[in-house]
Each structure stands twice: as C-alpha cells, then as structure tokens.
Design goal:
Helices cover 36% and strands 21% of the residues. A 6-stranded mixed β-sheet has the order 4-3-5-12-6-13. Strands 10-7-11 form a 3-stranded antiparallel β-sheet. Strands 1-2 form a two-stranded antiparallel sheet. Helix 2 crosses helix 3. The chain is flat and about 65 Å long. It starts with 5 loop residues before the first helix and ends with a strand.
C-alpha cells in the first residue's frame, strides 16, 4: 500500500488548484523549489505523472484529476475528524450556529431567547456563510447546527427539523412586465434571465453569477435578471423592486440541521429550544434522521 502524508496531499491540492508553482508556493508559504521537489517525490511514489509541465503552463493528467477529487475529500475528512474530536473533548463548548445573512425568517431572536432559558445553555457563536456551503460547515465540524433552506441546501447526512415553511416569490423591477401581476406561474418565467449562484453547480440560471441576496437584488435593480426566493428573504421589497407570488413553485422550508451522528446534549438542547420557540406547522414539520 502506498501512503501519502497529509502535508504531501496539501502540497498537491494547492498546485492542482492553482496550476502554477509560484502561486501554489505562496499559498503554502514554502519555497517554489521545495514544492517542485515534493511533487516529484509524490509522482515517483505513486508511479504515475500527476501534472503535465511546460515552460508556459501546468495542467493535470487524468491521474492528477482523480487524486485532486479524492485527495480533497481525504483532507476534508481529516480536518473534520480533528475538529469533532476537539469539540467532543471540550468541557465548556460554545454552540456554533451557521446561517446566511438574513436567512432566519425572523425566527432567530426568539430561538436564542428560548435557548438562553435552558439550564444547560451555552454561548452561541453565530457564523455566516455563502449560499452554497452551510451544510459543509456542519459536515466538517465548523458548526454544530445550521439554518438551511430546503430544497436548495443538500441535507444528505444531516438530521433536521422544519421550523418554517413559506411560498416563493419572483423579484422584478417595478417596470417589469410581471410587476403588476397578482401572481405568476413557473411557466411565466421561462423566457427570463435567472441568476447562477456561486458555488452551486447546475440549476436553470443563465445570467451573471451572484454570491448572495444583496448582489442578486442589485442585479435585478439594474435590469440584468430576475430572481425567485423565499418570501421572507426579500419582503418588504427594496425600493424599485416588486415581489410577486409564484403559485406553483414548491414551498421553501427553513430547517434546523445537524449531523445525524451528533448526539451531544449541547445540540439536543438547542434543537428543543428552537422547536419550542417556533409554532408547529403540521403536516410538514417533522424530524428527519
């Protein structure tokens, strides 16, 4: 069996991402010759070339692409294992909650107040993330619980409780052809330009890439696209924009999520407080594990 050290994988991933020895060396805070030597040593040990090098560029071989994909997963798994072990051994841990800015449907204050009444309540550290990586914060141990939106966020490997469900609206400039409608259907949006969300592959968007709701609203204001979002994220609508309900779009659910295997009282207590603070919305609110 051929073993690679974690540091060697970090060197390889940096070069695979940058495809430039100089930039990768700066990212790793090492000298470029040391990086070149390390990469040659990895290739010799594996018995396959990982990069095609020329005087002008560096590119991955098929073997390099395979190692990039699986090596990144391996590094993430090692990092997650370390963080989970540290958290398990912390006798006075803070609880870390991840969400996107404004992504709480107005519920967060009530949830935090209810949690503060729990006899075993801890300090809550609030972490903000982009549109694509909140679930990753949970899986790799950077956060304990998260407020996610289904069906947009991947819930694979996560237990979750639905806290709130709401319809979706299309956001358009006030002069748009749909602005005066009482409601629209998904078919009414087929000819429109929708955003591409940074870090989220696939989707139906053909417009410019946006990283968050603030960028999306700016692009809608200048007429570059329209957007479809959960109602709570965009109401009241900013000046110059109009929200129109999309009657046949599936509802958006705000869920509280955590790693399935996490049985710590710290997490269970927060989940209980969140459910206490938010009214049940039968029949859709139920636990998924």
């Amino acid at each position: 069996m051929i073993d690679l050290e974690t540091r060697e994988l970090e060197y390889f991933i940096a070069l695979a991402d940058e495809l430039h020895f100089g930039r990768a060396a700066v990212r790793l805070s090492i000298a470029q010759p040391a990086l070149s030597k390390a990469i040659r040593r990895i290739e010799t040990r594996l018995g396959v070339p990982l990069f095609v090098r020329s005087s002008r560029h560096v590119e991955l071989t098929p073997a390099g692409k395979a190692l990039q994909e699986h090596g990144r997963h391996a590094l993430n798994a090692v990092g997650a294992a370390v963080r989970h072990a540290q958290r398990a051994g912390d006798t006075q841990p803070h609880l870390r909650l991840v969400l996107k800015p404004g992504g709480d449907a107005g519920l967060l204050s009530g949830i935090l107040a209810a949690y503060a009444q729990q006899p075993d309540a801890r300090q809550v550290d609030i972490l903000f993330s982009g549109p694509a990586d909140r679930a990753d914060f949970l899986r790799d141990g950077r956060a304990d619980v998260g407020l996610l939106y289904a069906p947009f966020d991947s819930l694979d490997g996560l237990a979750h409780e639905t806290l709130h469900a709401e319809d979706r609206v299309v956001i358009v400039p006030s002069g748009h052809r749909l602005a005066g409608r009482a409601s629209v259907r998904v078919a009414d949006l087929e000819s429109e330009t929708l955003p591409r969300w940074k870090g989220i592959p696939g989707g139906d968007g053909t417009g410019p890439e946006v990283a968050d709701v603030v960028q999306l609203l700016q692009m809608i204001t200048v007429g570059r696209m329209i957007g479809v979002l959960p109602r709570s994220l965009v109401e009241p609508a900013p000046a110059g924009l109009v929200c129109v309900p999309v009657t046949d779009a599936p509802p958006s659910r705000l869920v509280l999520a955590w790693v399935e295997q996490d049985r710590r009282p710290l997490v269970a207590s927060f989940v209980a407080a969140a459910l206490q603070a938010t009214p049940a919305q039968d029949p859709i609110r139920h636990r998924h594990t």
